[in-house]
Amino acid sequence: MKGEVGFSKTAYYDNRELSWLKFEHRVLNEAKEEKSPILERLKFISITSSNLDEFFMVRVASIKDMVHAHYKKKDFSGRTPKKQLLDVHNATHQLVEEQYEIYMDALLPILQEKGIRIIQAYEELNSEQLNFVNQYFTEHVYPVLTPMAVDASRPFPLVRNGSLNIAALLRAKHPNLKFTQRGKGEFEFSTVQVPEMLPRLVPIPGEIGEEYTFVLLEQVIECNIDKLYLNYDVVCAHPYRVMRNADLSFDEDEVADLLKEIQKQLVRRQWGEVIRLEVEKKTDKRLLRYLTEKLDVSQDEVYEVAGPIDLTFLMKLQELEGVNSLRLKPFIPQPNPRLPKGTDVFTEIRKGDIFLFHPYETFDPVVDFIKQAAEDPDVLAIKQTLYRVSGHSPIVTALAKAAQNGKQVTVLVELKARFDEENNIGWAKKLEQAGCHVIYGLVALKTHCKIALVVRREENTIARYVHLGTGNYNDSTAKLYTDCGIFTCSEPFGEDATSLFNMLSGYSEPAAWNRFAVAPIWLRDAFLTLIQGEIDHANAGKKAKIVAKMNSLCDGQIIQKLYEASVAGVEIILIVRGICCLRTDIPGVSENITVKSIVGTFLEHSRIFYFYNDGEEDIYMGSADWMPRNMERRVELLFPVEDEKIKNRLMHILDVLLQDNLKAYQMQPDGSYARNARKDGISAHLTFCKEAKKANAKDEQDNNGRRFIPIWGVDVNDSE
Question: Which residue out of 358, 448, 467, 685 is catalytically annotated?
């Protein structure tokens, strides 16, 4: 390191939570894209709401826990938990206000112009619609409603986490009514949950020119709420929603059965401390005061929104039929050139390592890898980690089939995968019933690495086939998330895979690894060593460069090492989708660092790490972001890419991502992000879609008889 530069100043770091909220603004910006179809824009409004829910249930709840515990230690941005909580609420209120302005003022009018109308208040209903709504209430809604009164004998009910409810203030028409305990003129309080099993968007008869007209379920109930409270006048009734602390916390060392303990914790998740109360801005102030008192929330935790509560319902509009012009044409993942349907996966892997690029290429080869292993009489064993899988996972089905066929199947199902705990418990039980050996993860660690190992008998030897990836074994999200993976039968990789599974299933910690770097013991040191290598080259007057792509960057030790590298003259380009606590353009500290973030059609999820290494150009992929949790509290995996064609392919991918000037943002000196989109610019997502289609069509001819040429075949001499 040149000079005596220190890297501990709070001005050098952004707060993790505030950085995440900046990412949320980038997501919300997609709803402003005037060139995007209206349903695509509404989708990002919904995603913003869904992201905020999880953010509050986990991150904001964690900060509030620290405040309750009187924890006053500052984070590296110089904020105490109390200060973090204040800043987070201020930033979130601004974000939510902008979200509703976009939805109500910009998008709803366009939606109605396109023939889809969402009624904003039941006063807008004409007589025909009102009759329809009343009948719908009587036949479908009323039978499932349970109004809950509050008085001396009936305490304030436990309002479920994330549920939508309607609160009402009532006044008895006759003060001597048997069921009231209050005198004339006094208010009664009652609440009723909006049924989750009924559709939130209720289709109703529309006006001429309206292809679809909807009223919200809570409006149906509000319109008929007097029918729930006979002999009462309804003074006011308004919807509300609470978000609770949903983070599971327990001492794993004291737990005898992890599966049973998590099942118990899932029930408790519904009743955690309230950390956010959402109400409509028009809510009666008397009712709002009552709710804030009973739910014990501060003014900062009350979110008064100028529209319907919980905009996640907008995602349902994606399912409408007959309005394809209002949404993006879905991209169909293309076959992998090396692994078209019907290919013997093991034969092809023996010819050389195979690169997979999702969602541009189909996830089918990964599923086929397990399916073929399950049926192959020469396969002896299958071992795999599962962190998040789909609701109808073909991989889990294939693993169960393999066990039934007599294979030795070992599966690590991570029960602590947040918000997938219940799903994973179900899969774990199914696998056990099929005869698989199921591991529930390690004490105090989440197993987040993505690896599958197939052990196969071949002639007079045993061969090991390995799949390594950056994303989950989830065939559903593989259509939406950008991830990379490789198939290999390299012996050093096979040995490391065996060692890793032995470590996960027993107590066998390897003395050394051939190729892998594994968290929580070895991974951070591996990254620090790789960065130090570039520092050494720069100090020797040689070219030095790092390009690192990940989801989040907030590990203090790695950030400091990157600052040291910047001071030494290393060129550093970071492609960080979400959280980034590093700051660029700090004089004498980070002038050689650029941070980009790409938000678009697909969710950027792959982790790719490039180090120039004096011209050797080393590339790694893995499961871990540069975060303390990934380095210290998870089992993660980093592996080198050794095949030259795949290395070239990955360098091409990084080049395209860096050329993106349509969907890419760049961090500014003040920590904000700016996007300077060009009309004739490059979209990495669109480019990769086109390349995948051209690669798949390389043996077909267009109408003029000319052959399609794979772009990456031209750019990087890749013969796949």
Answer: 448
